[in-house]
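EI: anyone free to look at a 271-residue chain?
SC: sure, send it
EI:
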Amino acid sequence: MQKLGIIGCGNMGGAIAQSLPDGAVVYDSDQQKMEVLTRFPGIEAASSLEDLLDRSQRVLLAVKPQILPSLYPILRKHNSSEKAWISIAAGVPLAVLAEELGSDQVVRFMPNIAASQKAAVTAYAAHPNCWAENLAYARDIAQSFGQAFHLNESQFSAFIGISGSAIAFMLQFCHALSMGGVREGIPYPQALEIVSATMNSTNALLSTSKQHPVALATMVCSAGGTTIEGMQALCEGAFDAVVMQAVEASCSKSKAMEERALLGREITGKR
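SC: here you go
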């Protein structure tokens, strides 16, 4: 069986390559990045982009969205229409990928940075004409580095708001909690360790109990106790509203990026 080809060996491409049980063929214009990856079992470096395309029938595009326009002509010259594709490029819709690559065997991923820990949360969506076997293959790839959720592409922007970007929101929350601990006398490194453990215990409780988060939070709040005082402070600071606004802001940015990508395709098509 041919190995998956991965174009781009940055943080995400490298993390995905390392997670694959069958290894991968990788290519990046940065030779050093490829050399680092080839130290892992099963990962082979292609001598050129053309070499990778000759060796792999399934290819994952792990490059920044702004790099894709310069790649498309090369990919088309090497039978892109005969290959199956996975793209992690943010803001580039399936319709654009399919038209530029000349193939409807395209699946789109939206992972988060926890792929490096094999703990990513990844949304995936396929072109309507994508074969079931290629969709299943893509799902297996996504599950190799974490959890995968099959969504409609129209839901991708919302997913970015609650997962792709939200991992940063949660990290900022961890930092804020830790700084609160510092203010009350616990050194930052120890406070951060405690907060991280608390996040893990919260996730375990939420995952295993299957109860609504509000029900669980209410259980923690004793009448006249310490927790309800903190909950009131969150309400007075419009905590829920600010979080929802952050989700909306990331979602809106994602939609704008997709609209620009589609507009660019239309303009190119008119020339």
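EI: The first strand starts at residue 4 and ends at 7.
SC: 👍
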